[in-house]
Automatic annotation (TrEMBL):
Pfam families named in the record: Glycos_transf_2
Keyword Coiled coil in annotation: no
Protein name: Glycosyltransferase family 2 protein
Matches recorded under InterPro entries: Glyco_trans_2-like, Nucleotide-diphossugar_trans
Limits of the Glycosyltransferase 2-like domain: 6-119
Organism: Pseudomonas rustica
Keywords from the UniProt entry: Cell inner membrane, Cell membrane, Membrane
């Protein structure tokens, strides 16, 4: 069975979210919006969108961060009977022309996670671009593999059953550390992954919630935790590599 939806964490992206929802609904993809304690003007826009068919709204009373909002949306997707969820950012940075391609790849490989790896244009902040390369190296070390081509691109289709099994049994990062953290933990469980290149633009509404010092510190802390987690799993990971 393959019953997909889109999960969109929203924090004060009232200018862009309508365009994102329109694009997803036009491709017959139901949307779950997670209001991460946005300001009243954004909440009003989300309330209006939630009146449309195939749009579901979950409202958090306190800001959880991107990861916390995504995890809330994934749980809601499972409760609503969906089997797979496409994670989409609310600011319009993802190329929504690729939605059908990602969903079809997921339909053809329902047990796999379908992950985007980005093709950036000139709008990408250079500091964030360079920091990605350090993250790539740390992820390769923490998985003892080059399997993960890019752990920070949030445009991906999750098979809900294995993803929620990780979320419900491990402490996964709730903020900008979520995207890499969940991918490494799924890789440790031998989760199949397939990779599709996709264009990324920064951002449609000019609002970015990435805090350079704070979020880079969170990501560095996450890599440290994952490194020691990898050491504990080292024999099992090597055994799986040898058997493969």
């Amino acid at each position: 069975m393959h019953n997909p939806c889109a999960v969109i964490p929203v924090y004060n992206h009232e200018s862009a979210i309508g365009t994102v929802v329109d694009a997803l609904l036009a491709q017959d993809l139901p949307c779950i919006l997670v209001d991460d304690a946005s300001k009243p003007s954004c909440a009003k826009v989300l309330d209006a969108l939630a009146e449309r068919d195939n749009v579901h709204l979950v409202r958090l009373t306190a800001n959880q961060g991107k990861g916390g909002a995504v995890m809330t949306g994934l749980r809601e997707a499972a409760l609503l009977g969906f089997t797979h969820a496409l994670q989409v950012d609310a600011d319009g940075q993802h190329d929504l022309h690729d939605v059908a391609r990602f969903v079809e790849e997921s339909r053809a490989h329902p047990n796999a996670m379908i992950c985007g790896y980005p093709l950036f244009d000139e709008s990408v902040p250079k500091g964030r671009l360079y920091a990605r390369y350090l993250t790539h190296v740390m992820v390769w070390i923490n998985t003892l593999s080059l399997q993960i081509r890019d752990s920070m691109c949030g445009f991906r289709v999750y098979p809900l059953t294995p993803t929620l099994a990780v979320i419900d049994s491990r402490k996964v990062g709730k903020r900008m550390d979520f995207d890499s953290d969940i991918l490494v933990r799924l890789a440790w469980r031998n989760q199949p992954m397939r990779w599709l290149q996709t264009s990324v633009h920064y951002p449609l509404d000019g609002v970015s919630h990435f805090r350079l010092l704070h979020d880079n510190a969170l990501i560095s802390s996450m890599h440290t935790r994952l490194f020691f987690g990898m050491l504990l799993r080292f024999p099992v990971i090597l055994w799986r590599r040898w058997r493969a």
